[in-house]
Amino acid sequence: MNTNTEQNNLSAVCDSLRVCTQTLAAPYQSDPLALYQKLSQQSEHSLLLESAEISDKRALKSLILVDAHLKIVCNGNQVTITALQQQGHLLLSYLQSTLAQQSQISLELSNDTLVVEFADNVQQLDEMSRLLATNPMQVIRQIQQVKSDDHPFSVFLGGCFSFDLITMSETLPTVQDGENSCPDYVFYFAESLIVIDHQQQSSEIIVNSLITDDSRHDDYILKSKLRLAELQFRCEKAYIGADLDLQRKTTQHADVDIGDEQFCQQVETLKENIRAGDIFQVVPSRGFSLPCPDSLLAYKALKKTNPSPYMFYLKDQDYCLFGASPESALKFSSESRQVELYPIAGTRPRGFRSDGRYCDDLDGRIELELRNDEKEKAEHLMLVDLARNDIARVSEGGTRFVAELLKVDRYSHVMHLVSRVVGTLQPQLDALHAYQACMNMGTLSGAPKVMATKLIRQIEGKRRGSYGGAVGYLTGQGEMDTCIVIRSAFVQNGRALVQAGAGVVYDSQPQAEADETRQKAQAVLNAIRIANANVDAVHEQGA
Fold this sequence. Notes:
Layout: H1 3-16, E1 18-26, H2 32-39, E2 46-52, E3 59-75, E4 78-83, H3 88-99, E5 105-110, E6 113-118, H4 127-132, H5 137-144, E7 147-148, E8 156-161, E9 185-197, E10 202-211, H6 217-236, E11 255-256, H7 260-275, E12 281-282, E13 285-291, H8 295-305, E14 310-315, E15 320-325, E16 328-333, E17 338-341, E18 344-349, H9 360-372, H10 374-394, E19 401-410, E20 414-424, H11 431-438, E21 446-447, H12 449-460, E22 470-475, E23 480-484, E24 488-492, E25 495-501, H13 510-542
Parallel strand pairs: 1-7
Antiparallel strand pairs: 1-10, 2-3, 2-14, 3-4, 3-9, 4-6, 5-6, 8-9, 8-22, 9-10, 11-13, 12-21, 13-25, 14-15, 15-24, 16-17, 16-23, 17-20, 18-20, 19-20, 22-23, 24-25
């Protein structure tokens, strides 16, 4: 068969490729983490996303990505797409055909893997041209465009953008790899999902099959129904996780990569940049590490002790990432075309007395002090202004506004000042364009953002990986919902890295900023210590 005929056949197959979605109701699961644990035991690639009310932390929705057709990994200008199941090869063919039609891309297909190499477009000066240029985001965008049934999760991509993805569109100092080895992005295209609605107390099983005109449709439909029945059977039982004794906690010391004295020196150095007019604000960070033999148990402890609007547990064959984030990264609704940022800046510890007892009156006085702190308000309003600028760059004229300003959100160990900025996305742009324009969130970088990020790289000297990036999902309908990767742990080879930063401005006190990083890391470190103290007892319960 000649090359033209092969290409025509490949094109015909790709043109007819679509996602066929089968769904089935399942018994409501009040403990999605226990269900996730049962379903993901044999999987090397899975994801749990949970959302809750900000005010009272009541659970809203849980999404369990049980199995995936594809794994998509970006490192620099190279994207590697791996078929995890037989049907994933249809997507490799689809991507090979559609991406080959675009300029400045090279492709290499071998066995289960397609490697896509993109040209470096960082030097393009025009901001909109840079935003619209072909880059590694195009792989995700191309998958979103696969034809599918009219179900919100027929095309579901869950995963993580790293902090370092910003080098895709900005020229930054080169740094060495850090302990957090998360790639520039990693996403999974879902084959099977379970969606749990805690308000309606309902569960839905979703199985997505890939078919073409050449496919044996009946076989695929039968396989989908069998998979649905298997998952329904496994969901019939109400899974309740083993109990955790939250009073048990190890006294394990957390190693820190930058001690207080060195961190304070870094703060002073960055304040010199502020005085010189290079930046207005910057967010240096440091990492705390300790053993974590059971990352899922640590996530459970974190969920119980520090419930947050965004909870996540991402399992990859090489590492795990879990967290309880208070802060949305970027949210986009395809129906309203509204894009949203939720800046958080300004932190205080909760109202605990020296003996460890909580006091409402003390908590209220701490809130009042936070609200009246001119330094905290100035830092927060600076980041609100940065969010306004980010939203304005991708929004239709006159649609950007501040929906909420200077609220206080409370968590287990800290309280924060928060605001919300929204706008209507320009018609030629999508959620990925918006994320590219806004990354990384100012609360994790500073202002001006690019210069602050350059200084962060110079002073930290290594990649941040997942810390300060975003975790969440995109759909084929264009929806995007992500949170910033903070209050999180990156776990590899039985050891957890918990990174935390502090916002530095003109009148920052170095030791206070060092203390703030410890306060922010404390909830995750304590959860890991609780898990480590409970690990033997919990495993005995599950035996």
